[in-house]
Amino acid sequence: MTNDKDKNAWLWVPILYFTQGLPYIIVVGLSVIMYKKLGLSNAEIGLYTSWLYIPWVLKPLWSPFVDLNFTKRKWFLSMQLLISLAFLGIGLTLQTDFFLTATLACFWMVAFASATNDIASDGYYMLALSEKKQSFFIGMRSTFYRLAMVTGQGLIVILAGFLEHQLENTAKAWSFTMIATAVLMAVLTISNFFTSPKAEENSSKVNQNAHFGTIFSTFFSKKGIWLSLAFILTYRLGESQLVKMTSPFLLDDTAKGGLGLATEAVGTIYGTVGIIFLSLGGILGGILISKDGLKKWMLPMILSLNLPNLLYALLAITKTTSMFAIVGTVIIEQFGYGFGFAAFLVYLIYVAEGFYKTSHYALATGFMALGMMLPGMISGYIQEWLGYDGFFFWVAFAAIPALVLVRFLDYPADFGKKTLNN
Questions:
Q1: Contact 412, 326 (CB under 8 A)
Q2: Does the first or last residue of the chain, that is N or C, have fewer Cβ atoms within 10 Å of its Cβ?
Q3: Between 355 and 94, the higher pLDDT residue
Q4: What is the pLDDT of residues 195-231, one digit of tens each?
Q5: CB-based burial of residue 101 (10 Å sphere; 0-12 exposed, 13-18 middle, 19+ buried)?
Q6: Do 209 and 365 meet the contact criterion of CB atoms below 8 Å apart?
Q7: If DSSP codes are grouped into helix, strand and coil, which group holds residue 236?
Q8: What are the backbone angles phi and psi of residue 201, rounded to the nearest 5°?
């Protein structure tokens, strides 16, 4: 370690976590809107974009390699540069005949680099800050990650919608949008290069691979782990499908059962207003769990995550054009999502408790990503089979497995209270 610990933290923490959040939301959120506007079917969108979760599912497998080689700073700078180039590749190939294959390859490159960037950035945060400062900056870290989500699924989508109208060419509009995104990512990478201090040494002193098998064996030998993993895989069973079909529903013509909104309207409603209320729901959920413990709020939070999905079914049945109803539905659903997700995150912390807490948390989040990927892959096929109204009823009923499993989980009633207050 050098004497640069805590140096310039007010500057590099916001930029680093904005840079971490931006590629993630573009891969899992913006890609859905882009492919919808380029004419792909819902089945294709659900299948192709869900495959992009694979790097986040598998990142625990190469996280030791990141720990053992070079510095975290070198890792996240190189991954951010790779993301910039991949975004540029998407922009340059969108107007070609082979755009689908080329852009999916580039998106997969972004996903891999983003997952690796997550590992390195989080590791750097712990190494470059003292323990006191880690706690102090946790709120700022979360805030700028959320601002990146607003930018990626809100402002950038609004830009694409504006260019669609100006250029009267959807492919060209999204091409320019992704090139602009590449430039933004490059600027963020350069900013991280100049603001992040060299606060660590190369990590090649101890061969921790010898412990890798122990990490896995201790994780899978935890008491009740298979029940816990089943719960993790099903907690967001409905939401994992809803998140893939909400934007197509808002964008599709009324003749196809959608609401026929413009691209920039979706960016404003779902990508900006929605994410603001998602954040507010998460904040409230964290406060309540820290006050009363996880047990009291687990069931209400599962219900808050799933019951608002029925409001989308109501929109689909009525085919309303009321912006008040549409915006209200998005606000309630996203607030409920953030509120319900708070319990899930605290439960993941409980599952990871033990000597290898960091590695076990990475494994738990890998299963979380798997629980998003697999249902998402078939979401488009289910929607095309059931229609939008039937689909939204289905995703609401998909809460049943988690509601059944939660009755059998064994965890301390005050776990969140103790953990979040300390």
A1: no
A2: C
A3: 94
A4: 998 877 655 544 444 466 777 888 899 999 999 999 9
A5: exposed
A6: no
A7: coil
A8: -110, 165
